[in-house]
Amino acid sequence: MAGISSKFDKFIEKANTKRKLVLFYIAFIIIPIIVVDTLIISGVYRAERDARWHMMENEANAINFTFFNQVDQAAKLGNALYSSLYVDDFLNQEYDSNLDYFNAYQKFFDDTLLKLVEGQSGLKFSIYLDNDTITNGGEFQKLSQAYEDDWYKYMEASKRNKGLYFGRRKAADGKTQRTIYYFQRLNYYNADSKNFLLVLIDYATCADVLSNLNYENRAYVCDGEKIIMSNSKYSNVNKDYDIKSDEIKIAYSQDFQVYGQELTIDIVDTKNNPFINILKGKWYQFILLIVVNLTLPIFVSHLMSTAYKNKLKEQEIVVARKNAELLALQSQINPHFLFNALESIRMHSLLKQETETSEMVERLAKLQRQYTEWNEDIVSIEQEIEFVEAYLELQKYRFGDRLSFEIDIEPECLKLFVPKLTIVTFVENACVHGIESKITPGWIFVRASSDGEFLTLEIEDTGNGMDEEESRNLLRRMRFSNIGMLKEMGRVGMINACLRLKMISDEEASFDLDSEPGTGTLVQIKVPVRHLKGFN
Description:
By secondary structure, this protein is α+β, with helices and mostly antiparallel strands. It folds into 2 domains: 1-306, PAS domain (Beta-Lactamase, 2-Layer Sandwich); 377-532, Heat Shock Protein 90 (2-Layer Sandwich), CATH 3.30.565.10. The protein has helices at residues 2-82, 85-92, 98-112, 114-121, 150-158, 203-211, 274-281, 283-307, 311-333, 335-351, 355-372, 381-399, 423-435, 468-479, 492-504, and strands at residues 124-129, 140-142, 162-170, 176-185, 196-201, 218-223, 226-230, 242-243, 252-258, 261-268, 378-380, 403-409, 417-419, 442-450, 454-461, 510-516, 520-528. The chain has a 5-stranded mixed β-sheet with strand order 2-1-5-4-3, with helices on both faces. It is flat.
């Protein structure tokens, strides 16, 4: 009985061990595989869905931009006529006879070159006048001629000064075609004026441009429920406008406004089953995932049976190795590592009595420390001037006798505060754009003075200078600097510095620039002193 009991106990123990292994296998192999597979598949699905969404967003943005450009020519013509006093005088003048009007008509077109503009832009326009002394014909019509037209009724009902109307008109061949009307009231000088401009925008051209974008998804430009145009079958110029139906499954929609007209861009995703598309496009990844799912449990089971005893020890070794690697990486990326290396080079140069090299390394270390240790964005002018001196000394080491500089800072300015690296940015600009390309020697002057109310900074160079147009454009960018300009090319550092000076002074900083080709450039900055105190 004891033998039977012992065998039974071993059987029970073996069964318990097997059950534990099965539970362990399920808990730590099967379930993690299912979870990981779910995360991978859902992640790929979300990535594909987001990619499709961003692609449709880009398509809508491109259509928005393209449609706006097609209408913009008409709007530019309307704005030019709207604000012209000469045009207003012609439209509202009372004429004694048809001949009087005809002579004024001829002179008007000779003076305004509107015929040339009409020919070059391809736009057809008419001006409707509340003036009974004119003669109907050509580009000018009496207001009464428009009373029965749909676009006029729409314009009057909308009460807008300018806008779009999508309607139809008879073409030269007698067929009724879709037309985009742009209207603008010419009431700049008289708010009660009923005169207005009507521009006919070629619908077929707009539709062709939209179709030529060659996007794979179907896109619709809609005015409410009316489909204005599309890159598919809904842009037939000879048919009436279609109404959106429930058959159109919209995946992305974007509202936009074109000169007062509220429109919508609807995108239909041609690949409306993302998961099937993922299987087709990434089948090899799913096959790899299946292979991993089949082989990983076998591989893990083998490791469990052969390597369990060494598992903890191996983990300790791995952790120790990773910690050592992390410490090594930290020491490599730590800025002090670079500073210590520069200091070693400087000391080595001093020991070899290479004084000039030692000074250059010291200035380079000072510059590098300014770039890397960005604890605060605001520094005293005294600190900023130290950086300016280090930079100019390095440049003098490069240019030699071609570069001379003079720094003149009034003592009361030293404790005022400015955004870090602003003054040196203007100095760098003077050096790079003024002195670098000049063959003969040049000077850079840095001056700071205060009258108690304003701090005046001046950075002057005797370099190549700029012509009047370049100087005017740069000054405009300095005065109207904004975040968007930082995406543009050319003198981004100066725009950045101007923007930060404006921000610290609540937009009260002022900028001036005087430049002459072959003589040099002077940049003058004025900032109220009250904004430059109290940062310490």
